[in-house]
Design goal:
mainly beta
Length: about 70
């Protein structure tokens, strides 16, 4: 996973933040999340495996301590 980038992620926040990612910015373009394939938590983060509307898979990871998102394509 060489291509790791900080990014802005738009999320639905129900009981907790982030509850479900809806869209994110990748290489200057807004990518809409078509499906959340998996989600998991670690002590200081939560991650989502998502697929965009064009079928491209990504992993979005939110670090709660640093209050930032990271994106991993593929």
């Amino acid at each position: 996973m060489d291509d790791i980038t900080s990014c802005a992620v738009e999320c639905y926040s129900g009981y907790t933040y982030p509850d479900q990612p809806r869209a994110f910015y990748w290489q200057g373009l807004r990518q809409y999340v078509a499906q959340v394939v998996a989600r998991w938590r670690a002590p200081d983060s939560c991650s989502f495996r998502v697929v965009t509307q064009d079928g491209t898979p990504f992993m979005l990871s939110y670090n709660e301590v640093q209050d930032n998102w990271r994106i991993y394509p593929g």
